Amino acid sequence: MKSKILATLLLSVWTFLGAAQCDISGRYYQRVFPEFTVTSNIVYGNNLDYTGAAEDLTLDVYQPVDDNLTSRPLVVMCHGGSFISGSKNGPDVVPFCQDMAKMGYVVACINYRLGFGITNLEGSATQAVMRGTQDLKAAIRFFRKSVAEQNNPYLIDDNQIYTTGVSAGGFMTLHHAYLDQESEIPSFLDMNGIGLEGGLEGNSGNPGYSSHVNAIVNICGALGNSDWISSGDEPACMFHGPNDQTVPYGSATLSLFGFPVTAVDGSFALNEKLNQVGVQHCFEIYEGQDHVPHLGSPAYYDTTLSIMTQFLAQQICDYNFNCEYNPIVTNQLELESLSFEIFPNPAKDFIQIKTPLQSFDYTIYNSLGIACVASKDNKSQTSIPTEQLSPGVYFIEIQSKQYRATQRFIKE
Predict the structure, then answer these.
(1) Sequence spans of domains, the chain
(2) Do domains 4-330 and 337-411 have the same CATH topology?
(3) What is the DSSP letter of 318?
(4) How far apart are CA 371 and CA 393, in angstroms?
(5) The pairing of beta strand 404-411 with beta strand 392-399
(6) How many helices (H) and strands (E) are present in the chain, helices listed first?
(7) Using alpha carbons only, what angle is made at residue 42 by residues 86 and 334, rounded to the nearest 5 degrees?
(8) What is the DSSP string of 113-125?
(9) Residue 90 in 3-state DSSP?
(10) Among the four given CATH numbers 2.60.120.620, 2.30.110.10, 2.60.40.2470, 2.60.120.280, the one describing domain 337-411
(11) Residue 347 pairs with which residues in a beta bridge?
(12) In contact, 165 and 172? CB cutoff 8 Å
């Protein structure tokens, strides 16, 4: 359990700054800024990967254009990919980063160390979770260091830092928040393994600064043990589907490539524990859905963005707490681009996409978030070859200067 004294001090700072941050109507839950900027590949740390090779850790920073505030909340975003693949450029996270920047947040989307050995899956996979969590903490410390030592170049309020994670990234946000005592580390987890030195905080960079966050968002992730959650811990906003075949919805054994890995507590079990100990939280059930349904579904993306940003806005501003969906203000072109057509689906040798955009870029990702095909400057009805793809599930992302959308398709 985190220090209640620290929480009280942070609440005092929040009360003082909250009014200034919330002057603009709709800020933090509506798109109040039309454009955003991205600063890419900022090095925030370095550590050894699971093979012992040194790896620079990088992040991208998204910021609203024409924002007059000089002290803004920071959201650190973590991508999915089963700790095997995925990146800060993935379609599971980039649309959130763009939209949240338009809402007035500063968003940092991070890369973290991937990969683990294939022997002793319980130990090696759990080590991968811890390496990612250590990197997340280093990223948070990076921004507090930038405020203290670099005159706050990203114009953040370092008393208002939040984390959001999708799938594997959800594991990281949950373990960052609730695995907060060295005594809670499972006995099968060797913290003397390669790249794991430094305990729960780790040695990925920026020592001497706090990695505390105010609240977390978990999208289809899980925690090693719900008993790590205590009264006074960070508020949480969670999303999960009962039919998730990748990460357990309740308390069950996590599997990878058909092999059992370890017991975890998914969002349904965490919801029960958070209720029991009285930690403020939201839990949105993706009824009847599998893993990360926002990836490829405009409706689920819109619901996730709405509830997530309202939850965060309520942590930042003096808004009444609720977990209900509310429409997000947008424009007609963006609504149309989010509803682009794709056919045939399932596909064999090609797919066609039809969109109101006059030209766009596209990228095809496999189910692990790895880019397979990319092309630029296509016209509004385009035949895209798919014969080079192996059978399976894919996502196609289309992008123009201001708009981005993703849909799912199957290659037979």
Answers:
(1) 4-330, 337-411
(2) no
(3) S
(4) 13
(5) antiparallel
(6) 7, 16
(7) 60
(8) -----SSSHHHHH
(9) coil
(10) 2.60.40.2470
(11) 411
(12) yes
Q: Scanning the structure block, which residue is given the tokens 């209640």?
A: 4
CATH 3.30.1460.10 fits 4-330, yes or no: no
List beta partners, residue 166: 219
Q: Alpha-carbon distance 269 to 265, whole Å?
A: 6
- Partnered with residue 392 across adjacent β-strands are 411
Beta strands in 212-345 (DSSP E): 215-219, 222-223, 236-240, 251-256, 259-266, 281-285, 341-343
Going residue by residue through the chain, which has 412 residues, state the pLDDT in tens, using 9 for 90 and above. 444 334 434 444 433 444 456 766 789 999 999 899 999 999 999 999 999 999 999 999 999 999 999 999 999 999 999 999 999 999 999 999 999 999 999 999 999 999 999 888 899 999 999 999 999 999 999 999 999 999 999 999 999 999 999 999 999 999 999 999 999 999 888 899 899 999 999 999 999 999 999 999 999 999 999 999 999 999 999 999 999 999 999 999 999 888 999 999 999 999 999 999 999 999 999 999 999 999 988 899 999 999 999 999 999 997 888 899 988 855 434 444 456 788 888 888 888 888 777 777 888 877 556 677 777 666 656 788 888 888 887 878 777 766 667 777 888 8
Question: Do residues 268 and 252 lie in contact, with contact meaning Cβ atoms separated by under 8 Å?
Answer: no
137 neighbors 112 (Cβ within 8 angstroms) = no
- Using DSSP, state whether 95 is helix, strand or coil: helix
- Whether the upstream peptide bond of residue 346 has omega within 30° of 0, thus cis, is yes
Beta pairing class for 222-223 and 259-266:
antiparallel
Q: Are strands 259-266 and 251-256 parallel, antiparallel or unpaired?
A: antiparallel
Q: Which ranges of 103-196 would DSSP assign to H, the alpha helix?
A: 121-149, 168-178
Strands 371-385 and 350-366, by their bridges, are antiparallel
